[in-house]
């Protein structure tokens, strides 16, 4: 990945398939927000980052070492998404969905944060999910200073495991609080091998995660895709199920038709249908 240092920012030529608004608003992450100046500020992997585009360039407000070691992987910058779009365009519907979703990239997020966030996401909307996540970070997350301001990091499972269910009442997460606490304790006690999860095959990841109370196949698939980098994972929610029923024969559908691009195809489908198109 070629980059330059300009005025304290790491700059790269903007990839054809990189649209920050689509990336951050397609339902895969919950700690990025657009600022008044049009830039995006997010907290991920123990760091804060400002990202903005200007004149066909992308600018990352971070040290060179963080770009190399964290953000290039986080934004999946080495993958050719143009080629992936072409591969998943297997019928007219997918061609339209892939074109509409052009610019989406699959973020490589921390596994624990992804698990916790998608437990929170169950039967929830994005605005409320983001609120619960922020309250959890404020409750027990460490802090980081960035551009003169202090931000809360996502708390470790060990820190969450120390809490009692009553401590989580301030989250206003309802029944999900029990699932969050249980997952944190299972990880802390070593009964869920969090560190080795991304080394497992996708089916094994799903089987392992669904042992957790309150974690079904949809949440597990989101963790496999957005946390473990399993690009063949294919989360199915109400939006994707609707598209499957209409365009892929419903129960006869097999996501393996997309091969290793299944996760990318899923995001195109989700984003397209959720925006009221293709239905």
Description of the molecule:
The structure is a single chain. This protein has 279 residues and is of the alpha+beta class. The chain folds into three domains: 4-78, TATA-Binding Protein (2-Layer Sandwich); 111-227, Orthogonal Bundle (Endonuclease III, domain 1), CATH 1.10.340.30; 238-274, no CATH class. 43% of the residues lie in helices and 13% in strands. It has twelve helices and eight strands. The chain has helices at 20-25, 64-74, 81-88, 92-100, 111-120, 126-140, 157-161, 176-188, 202-209, 217-227, 238-247, 262-274, and strands at residues 4-6, 9-13, 32-34, 40-44, 47-54, 57-60, 143-146, 149-152. A six-stranded antiparallel beta sheet has the order 1-2-6-5-4-3. Strands 7-8 form a two-stranded antiparallel ribbon. A hairpin with a 2-residue loop joins β5 (47-54) and β6 (57-60). The longest helix is centred in the middle third of the chain and has 15 residues, at 126-140. The N and C termini lie far apart (39 Å).
């Amino acid at each position: 990945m070629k980059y330059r240092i300009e005025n304290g920012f790491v700059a790269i030529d903007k990839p054809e398939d990189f649209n920050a608004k689509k990336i951050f608003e397609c339902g895969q992450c919950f700690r990025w927000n657009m600022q008044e100046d049009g830039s995006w500020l997010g907290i991920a992997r123990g760091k804060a980052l400002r990202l903005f585009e200007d004149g066909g360039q992308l600018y990352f407000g971070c040290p060179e070492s963080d770009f190399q070691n964290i953000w290039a992987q986080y934004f999946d910058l080495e993958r050719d998404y143009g080629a992936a779009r072409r591969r998943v365009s297997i019928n007219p519907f997918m061609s339209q969905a892939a074109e509409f979703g052009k610019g989406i990239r699959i973020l490589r997020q921390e596994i624990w944060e992804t698990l916790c966030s998608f437990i929170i996401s169950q039967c929830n909307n994005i605005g409320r999910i983001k609120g619960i996540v922020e309250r959890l970070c404020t409750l027990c997350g460490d802090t980081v200073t960035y551009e003169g301001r202090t931000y809360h990091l996502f708390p470790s499972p060990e820190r969450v495991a120390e809490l009692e269910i009553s401590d989580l009442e301030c989250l206003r997460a309802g029944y999900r609080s029990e699932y969050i606490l249980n997952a944190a304790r299972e990880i802390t006690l070593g009964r869920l091998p969090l560190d080795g999860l991304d080394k497992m095959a996708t089916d094994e990841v799903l089987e392992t995660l669904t042992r957790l109370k309150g974690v079904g196949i949809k949440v597990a698939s989101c963790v496999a895709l957005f946390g473990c980098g399993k690009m063949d994972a294919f989360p199915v929610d109400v939006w994707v199920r609707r598209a499957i029923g209409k365009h892929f024969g419903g129960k006869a559908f097999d996501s393996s038709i997309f091969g290793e691009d299944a996760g990318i195809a899923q995001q195109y489908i989700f984003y397209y249908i959720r925006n009221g198109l293709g239905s």
